[in-house]
Structure formats: structure tokens, C-alpha cells
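Progress narrative, work stream C.
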Amino acid sequence: MRSILTCFSLFVLLCKGFSQSAQPAQPAQSARQTQSSQYLQPGFSGSEYLEMLKINAYMSDSMPIQAHIPAPAAYARIYRSPVVGLLNKWDMWVRNDHKVAVISIRGTTGDLPSWLENFYAAMVPANGSLQLTDSTLFTYQLAADSKAMVHVGWLVGLGYLAPTMLTRIRMAYGEGIREFIIVGHSQGGALAFLTRSYLYYLSRKGDLPEDIVIKTYCSAAPKPGNMYYAYDFDFITRNGWAFTVVNAADWVPETPFSLQAISDYNPVNPFVNIKPALRKQPWLVRLYIKGKYNKLNRVTRKAQKCFKSTLGDMVYKQVKKTLTQLRAPQYADGNNFQRAGIPIVLQPDSAYYARYPNDPTKVFQHHFFMPYMILTEKYYGK
């Protein structure tokens, strides 16, 4: 209790020291989403998401499908990528009217390299390059903000998937398809976040046509990057073009481990320049609060160093056994993973728990396709 009161008192004193009497400026009018579509519509569609789950389930050999899932009714598969990187794979499906294509990304398989992609959870800048092989440099932009960071393991996955994705998107565009849906479940959902960002910034640079329309469903997805990446993702997909669908009983969307340090705040905040705020306080108060502040800051910095060493350097050594030419990137000082996308929460009820009771021996039962389908049908049924 004393520690909580100390932290609260510190916050009050800092905010008081930094307070100003000037009136805040009126915010500028936000930019409007100019993206329009004839065939895809913004907003969450339960029937559309269910169809995307069926598509994703029909490529997955990573999670047991506990009950039969019907085949997608309105789409046909036209392409399956080779397995690349840390066992990544994706499919392209086309709607029967040949107006919409789907990029379906596989989730985690039962093999160690695929799991290492998840555990390789250090952060790297959202803009930069990765040396995937001696002859392959993957250059990427996933956000406009230089403070944005992303999960390095899933970035490696994107780097290996991107070449075939771009080839097939351009082919589909040449055949008259202008609208795409990106979908992934679990690890595939995490990769769907990064894929959407990657394609957006390629189109901004003119490397993809600007009239491409993309809608995104990140299902059962872990957190893809830090707060500034999440801000950017939500901004570029604003007005209802990207969703993160979560079963509230599923633990996977709560990962990876997150840690917020002082360095994760925006540059203008009352915590960075603590000394000016404390000068107005009595010396004994100043000494006590400064000591507590330094202790809290040391603890978070030490934890961050441990995360980077364990989830970056140590896991990289295991990843390199599969990707022998992958060069370790410069990891960022950050581990403040955040969710992105418009949240669609599937809340379990008593009927759900009667069918799927919490069982410590079945840690993935709330994560599979069928629980997500059952809850979606319950709340967003046809």
C-alpha cells in the first residue's frame, strides 16, 4: 500500500510541476479515410469473418480441428505458397465473382522452428532491413513513426513470405482484382498485421497500385508491436478496415510478455525531466521521491535488458540453426507490446463453458477455430 501511495504522490507532484495555465490548442480536423470499395464494405461482418475462418482452417495443419468445419462456399483456392523461413506458408483464394482475393496466412505448426518464430520476441524498428540470407536483404516500412517497433520473429516470417505475396497480388491486379482480404489466425493473425502495414507503405511509395482496397481480419492474434506501431496500424486502417477478433477466454492474444518503461512514453511527459518538477518540493520529500523514482526506473530497465537478452540473443541462436544465413538485427530497447486493430470481443457465456470448461491440461482449447466460430455465430450469426 505504501508503494502505491508513493507512486500516486509522485505522479501528482510531477503533473503539478509541469502544469501550465495556457489553454490547449484546438485539434486540427482529422483526415478522412478516402478509401472506397464497390465489393468490400468497411465494418465488421460476422458472415464474412466466418468465411475467412473457414478459408484459414482449410490451410492449417498447425492446430487440431476438433470438429468438421465446412468448406468456404463463396471462394476457391488458386495458389498455395511454398513453405519458407520458419515454416511459413500462405494461400490465395478468389471469390466466385472474381472481384475479391483473400491472402490467408498459416498459423503456428507443431514444429520447433515455427514456435521459435513466436519466441523470437525482441523488438526491432518498424522501418529498416533484415539480412535474411547472404544474398537476400529484406527492406521494409511498417509505420511512419520512427518510434514504432515490431516483433522480430514475425518480421522474419513476413520477409520470407513477401516475395510470393507481391507476385500474386500483382498477377491478381492484372486480372482485374482490386480488392483483397488479409486473414490469419494465431501466428497467422500476427503476420496479418505486419502484412497489412507492409502493403500499405508499398502502395504509398508507388510499388503497388494505390487503388488496391484491403480489409484485414486478425483472428486470435498475439500483440504485434509497441504502442506507436499500434497507433500507426489503427490510423492507416481507420474507418472500419481492420479487426482483431478475440475469444476472451483465449490466452494467446495476451502474449507476448509486455513491459512499459519510462522510455516508452511520448517525449513530452512529466516523468522524463523529473528534476525541475522536484525543485519546488522540500528537500526531504525531494530526496525520498527521487530515490523511489530511480528504483522503479532501474527495475524496468533491468527487466527490459533481460527480455532483450533472452527473447533476442538467446532465441536467435536457436533460430539460426534453421535459418543459417540470417543475421541478427540490432534489437530496439523496448518490450511494450500492444494490441492493434478494432477489437471484436467474443465473450464466453455459461453455454460456452459447459462445452469448453477451463481445463489446465488443455491450454489451447479456447484458441482453436471451432470456439471462435461458435461464439461468432452466437453474437454475429447470419
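Work stream C, second folded protein:
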Amino acid sequence: MVRLLRGNAAFLRDATDHLTALGVGTVYSPPLYRSSSAVWRAGGYEERHRLHIMERSLGLPSEPARIAMTTTVDPLWDQVLRIDQDAFEGMWRMSETGLREALHSTRVAAVLLAGDRTQPDGYALVGTQWGVSYLHRIAVDPGQRGRGIGSELVRAAIGWARKTLSTVMVLNVRPSNHDARRLYEREGFTATGTDLHLLGYGA
């Protein structure tokens, strides 16, 4: 994945060509609003995936998490990465660098660990700024699925967000991930009708 901090479409194209010359098969943009994607499209990137944005008012009632949770900014990253690699496939997996970047993308953030801190059953990565909280990432160890841990993590994330005085929590989800969509809907999230666009360049 490439992040463009400054530069035009020609610069982006040159940087991407350099990566593909090094043997990188497909280079992806970060998830983008359509209004932010013009320079990427001009640089030769094409839409590969969309993510639906969902949100939940934190003023709505919710049940508290009923299992032990650890809140930390310094988890055992090898354990978090293990869960992430097992829970997702292919390009949807995140590296430790990507997880750390997500943790530092907002002014206040935390990792919520379900169960034993040294060998958790799942995690949620949350952040907040300017009155909006974000459920950046959630993953459950495949061996622990079916125990309601995903719901408990979402409820813990909502509880964490309320303590930051946020008024709303936002997340994004793949349209094809029906299980995740149903989970979020059960916990009070609704689709906003806005999508994020994931653009790709190359094979």
C-alpha cells in the first residue's frame, strides 16, 4: 500500500512504477473517499474494492462487554498479528507496521484484547478525535469463533468510545462480509450510504 503525502499524479505514477519494477505485483491506495481519489485515478490506479461506511450514535443504549478485556496501547504485537493473519485472507491481512499506523492515526487510541492479555482470543483497535470514534479493526481467533467474542469486542469498543466523550462511532466493512455486517447491525450500526474506494495499480 502506498500513501501519498504530497505530489501530483505523475509523481505517484513514477513512485508506483518503481515499486512494480522491484517485483511488487499490485500496489494499493489507502481507502479513499471519491473526492480524494482523483489524483490516484489520474496516476493509473483503478477501483478494485469498495468499503461501506457504517456508524452508530453513542447515545443509543448498549450492553456492556461481559468478558474480561484488557485496554492497552502496547499489546504483545506478535499475538495481535497472529490473530489478524489467521482471521483474514490475502490482501486483507495487515502487517504489524499497518496495525501500528492505524493505532497512531488518531489523537487517542487503544487496543482492546479479549481474554488473556498474553494469548488473547480477539482484539479491537479503536481511536478517537474531534468527537468521532473509529472502530479501525476487529478480529477473532478462528479457533474461538462462535462464542460471541466479536459481539463482546464491539460492545467493549462502544464502551471505550463513550469514555472519550465521542458522540458517534464509525467503521467500514466489505459489502461481501455478510457476517460482519450482521454483527454490526445487531450492535446498532447502520449504513451511511457512503463508500470508501480502494484503488489498485498493476496485476
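The first strand starts at residue 26 and ends at 28. No further action is required on this item.
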